[in-house]
TrEMBL record:
Signal peptide location: 1-25
Domain Mechanosensitive ion channel MscS C-terminal: 725-808
Alphabetically ordered keywords of this record: Cell membrane, Membrane, Signal, Transmembrane, Transmembrane helix
Gene3D superfamilies: 1.10.287.1260, 2.30.30.60, 3.30.70.100
GO molecular function: mechanosensitive monoatomic ion channel activity
GO cellular component terms attached to this protein's record: plasma membrane
UniProt-listed SUPFAM superfamilies: Mechanosensitive channel protein MscS (YggB), C-terminal domain, Mechanosensitive channel protein MscS (YggB), transmembrane region, Sm-like ribonucleoproteins
Mechanosensitive ion channel MscS domain ranges (all copies): 651-717
Organism field: Pedobacter ginsengisoli
Name used for this protein in its record: Mechanosensitive ion channel protein
Compartments where located: Cell membrane
Top-level taxon of origin: Bacteria
Membrane topology according to the record: Multi-pass membrane protein
UniProt cross-references to Pfam families, sorted A to Z: MS_channel_2nd, MS_channel_3rd
Amino acid sequence: MMLPKKLTCSLLVCISIFSCITLLAQKKDSTIHKSILQDSLKLNFVAKMQAFAKRSAKNSADEFEADKATIIQIKTFEEIKRTMQKAKIYVNGKLDTPGIKREFKKIEKDLIVVGDGVFTNKGSSQTYRNLTATSKIVSELLNKANAGKLKLDVRLQELNAFQYQLDSLLSVPALFKFPTDSVTLTKYLEKIKVVAYETTPIESSLKEASNNIQSLLNQANLTVFKLETSLEEIESHQKDIAGQTYKREFSNIWESPDYYQPFNEILYFSKTKGLLTLKFYAENNMGKLVLLVLLVATSFIYLRSLKNIYLENNLLKTDYEGQLVLRYPILSAILLVTSLFQFLFISPPFILNVIFWSISCVCLTIIFRNFIARYWMRIWLIIVMLFLISALSNLILQASRIEQWCMLIASISGVIVGLVALLKGHREELKEKWILWSITFMALLEFASVFANIFGRYNLAKTLFISGFLNVIIAILFLWTVRLINEGLFLAFNVYSGQDKKLFYLNFEKVGKKAPLLFYVLLIIGWAVLFGRNFPAFDYLFKPFLNFFNQDRTLGDYTFSINSLVLFIVIMSISVIVSKIVSFFASDGHLAGGRDNKNERQGIGSWILLVRISILCIGLFLAIAAAGIPVDRITIVLGALGVGIGFGLQTLVNNLVSGLIIAFEKPVNVGDIVDVDGQGGKMKSIGFRSSIISTWDGADVVMPNGDLLNAHLINWSLGGNRKRISIQIGIAYDTDLEKCRQVLTGILDNDQRISKNPGPVVQFEQFSNSAIDLRIYFWTKHIGDTSATRSDLIIAIVAAFKANGISIPFPQQDVYLHYPDQ
C-alpha cells in the first residue's frame, strides 16, 4: 500500500535523525578533532532538515489553497452557467417594448386632444365641465403611464440584477488563483476562455436591453411629469372657479360675442373627450357593470315569478293599483337596479350618469302609460325632454354663444312648465305629492339660470341649468323607486305568508300602506349627493369628509381606516340579511298549496342551513379581504375563541357543530314530520344553534341542535310519510266470520287514502269474554291522513255492520242468584 507523499517525507526525516543519534553514541571515545568535525556536520544537517521542513509546510499550505481555489472555481463556473441561462431566458422573454412605445405615444396624443380648451384654445374663460372631464381623462392617462412605467422599472431592475450577479461571479478572487502546474494551467485557461466566450453575448444583450429600457423609461418619466403638471394646472383652475362662483366670464348675452372656438370643433372635442372618459371608466369598472347586469337579470326573474303566482291565483288587478311593479317586470327590474346601484360607481363620468338616468326615464315612462293622469303624463314628458336637452348641453365642454341661447330658451321653458304645473291644478290626480316641491325648486333654479346666463355668468348658469331639471328627474325616479320597492315587499309577503320571525321579520301592518321612513331618508341623501355633484364647490366640501374616512389610523401594530371598518360591517350585514331572506323565502310556501309543491319546498328547505353557512362564509372572507385584516390577527381571535370554548362555551359549540352535522348528514330536513321524545310535529326550520318544531297543537318548540341529535328522533318523512294504523273490533260469537272479513276488506279497498301495497290485513286475534276480537292493519299513503282515515273507517264499519246484521257486542256478565233457604 502506497503512503501519501507528506507522510513519507515525515518518516524519512525521523529515521535520519534517529540514525544520527545512534552513530554519535557509538563514537564517544573518538578524538577531539573528530568530535569537533562531527559537531560541525551535525549542525549543517539540522539546518538542512529545518529548511526542508519549512519548504514542506509551505508546499502543503500552497497545495491546500490550490485545492480550495479549485473547489470555489468549479462552484463559480456552475453558478455562472446557471445565471447565464436564466438571463438568456429572461432576455428572450421579450417585453412588448413596441407596444409600450405605442401606448406612450397614444397617451401623449390623447393628452393633446383632451387639452383642447384647457391648455390650448383656451378662449376667454375656462368652463367647469371641461375641467372636470379633462381631469378625469388625464388622471386615467396618468394611471396608464404609471402602469407602463412600473413595468419598465421592474424590467430594468431585473436586467441590472442579472448584470450585477454576473459581474459579481466573474470578480470572485478564487478565479484568479492559477495552478502552478503548466498542464493544469493550460486546461484552466482554456476553461476561462470558454466561459468568457459564452458570457460575452449575454452581457452584450443585457447591456443593450438595459439601454433600450432606460431610454423608454426616460420617455415614460417625461410623460408622467407632463401629466402630473397638467393635473396640477387643472386643479388650480378648478379652485379658481370654485372660489369665484359668481364671477362674470363673458359679456352680456345681447352684446357682441367674445372669442369662441368654432362650434363644430367644440362638438368634436366634446364627443372625443366624452367617449374617452366613458371608455376608460368602463374598462376600470367592468366588474361592477357585469354585476349590474346580473342584478337586473335576478330582479327580473324574481318579479316575473311573482307575477306568474298572482296570475295563477287570479290576484292581479286590471288597473295594477298597488301592483305596478308587476306590470312590466323587466322594466321594473331595470329601473330599481339602476336607480339604487348607480351609487356603486365612485365618481362616474357625467355621460355614464346620463345613460343611467335616460334608461330609467324610458322605463318609468312606459310603466306610467295609462296609469297616471294624462295631464301629469304630459308634464313628465316635457320635463324629461328638457332634461335631455340640458344633459346634452352639459356634455358640451366649451362655451359658445349658440349654446348660451339654447340654454336661455330651455331655462325659460323650464320656468313656464314649472309655473303651469304648480298653478293650473290637477293636484288631486298626482300620485306622489312630494314631486311638487322638486318642481318648485326647478322653477327657481331655472329662473336664476336665466339671469346668470343673460349677464355672462356662464359656469353658474350652466350649473343651475342642469341642476334644475336633474333635481326633478332624480326626485321622481327615487320617489317611484321607493314606491315600487314597497309594493314589491308587500306583494312578496302576501304570497310568502307563513312567516318565521326567527328567520326574517317585517311588520305586515306597515308594509304596503306606507314606505318606511328609512327609505325616504336614503332617498334624500342620494338626491343630495347626485344634485351636489353639479357644483364646483361640492368636491372641496366633500373632500375632508372622505379624508376622515380614508385616513389610516394605528392601533398597536394594526393599521386601519374607518372606511375599511365600515366596509367590513356593511359586507357582513348584507351577508346576514341575504342569508335570512334566502331562509325566509326558501322555507315558506306560497299560495299554490298542493302536496307535490310541498314536497318540492321540503327538498329546497333541506339545503337552507348549508346555503346560509355558505353565504355567511363568503361574506366573512370578502369582508376580511376588503378591510385588509391581517391573517395573524385572525389566528389570535381563533386562539381566544379556543380558550373561551375550553372554559364555558362547550354547550354552544356542541349545538353549532350539531347544526353542521344535521346540515350535512340530513337525519331530518325542513318540512319533515317527526316525533322527538313523544313530542310530535313538523320541522319548521333548522338554524345554526337551534331548530324549531311546529307541534300539532300549534306551538313552536325551540330545541337545541345537540338535544335534537341526542334524542330518540323518529322521522316519519324518511319512510315516505307513510304510517301503519290498526283498529281493534269485537264481533258477536254467532257472526259469520268470513262474511265479516269480506265486508271489512271491501271498505278498506274502496278508500283511496289507504295504500294497496302493502295491502290491508284483517286478522282474527282471540276469543274474549264477550266477543271475538279482530284487528285491522292498513297503511295510509300520507301520515297527515291518519286521523281522518281512522275516523272515516270507524263510521263506515259501523254502517256496514248494521247493513249486514253484524253486531258489535258490549261487555256483559250474567249474575245468578241462589237462595239456599228457599
